[in-house]
Amino acid sequence: MQMYEDSSYMTAKAFLERLHSDLGRSDFHIGFSQAPDNEDEYLEILNYLKRKFNEMKLEQKIGNDN
Predict the structure, then answer these.
(1) Organism's domain of life (predicted)?
(2) N or C: which end of the chain has fewer CB within 10 A?
(3) How far is CA 43 from CA 30, 31, 38, 50, in A?
(4) Shortest CA distance to 7 belongs to which of 30, 35, 40, 32?
């Protein structure tokens, strides 16, 4: 059983590789069932992950300041 499915826009492998490249890190795993269907959907996912990583950095900084 394949865990990740390709879409008509991109393969699941290309999706993960592009996320790793665009985020500049590969030390994360995301749960998804299918690669995005278009560029707008990809950008929405990318921007969501950027926000989450920034929130994590802020939380770590606040924790280290205490």
Answers:
(1) Bacteria
(2) N
(3) 15, 16, 9, 10
(4) 35
Query: Tokens 């790793």 belong to which residue?
Result: 20
Which contacts of 27-30 are long-range, i.e. CB under 8 A and separated by 24 or more positions?
Answer: none
Supply the pTM of this predicted model: 0.79
CA pair distance 61, 20, nearest whole angstrom: 23
Q: Which residue has the tokens 């996912």?
A: 45
pLDDT of 65: 66
Rounded CA gap, 41 and 19, in Å? 12
Structure tokens at 42: 């990809």
